[in-house]
Amino acid sequence: MKKLLLLILATVLVIIGWNLVVSSDYNGFIVEVKETSLIIITPTSNPMEDYPTYEIFLTQDTEIEGKRDSINDFRAGDEVRVWIEKKGRTKK
To answer: Which of 4, 28, 55, 58 could make a disulfide contact with 40, Cβ separation 3.0–4.6 Å?
Structure first.
């Protein structure tokens, strides 16, 4: 019984820890692709609320992973997850 409880506790801790590692700063859908930025919306759970909109600026240091290779490959409606790397005092 103790082993089962320890196994359950360890599993829960691993799941929580993994979620903290892979959770992105922004999840959403692209509504517009500009030359150096993406406009994304992050849907809310309340259909009566307005969706928050964010403009994510891309630089020469931006890394794109997944099915797209460059900003030119993104289209409105694509689902994206964005991680922001902290540089100095501000996030970039």
So the answer is: 28
Whether 66 shows a pLDDT value over 90: the answer reads: no
Report phi then psi at 73, rounded to 5: -85, -15
Q: What phi, psi does 18 have (nearest 5°)?
A: -65, -40
The pLDDT value recorded for residue 22 is 58
Rounded distance between C-alpha atoms, residue 89 and residue 67, angstroms: 31
pTM here?
Answer: 0.60
pLDDT digits (tens, 9 = 90+) for 14-31: 666 655 555 677 888 999
Count Cα neighbours of 87 within 13 Å in the Cβ-side half-sphere.
7
Distance (Å, whole) CA 16 – CA 58:
30
| Angle 10-15-87 from CA coordinates, rounded to 5° | 125
Tokens of 30: 């692209």
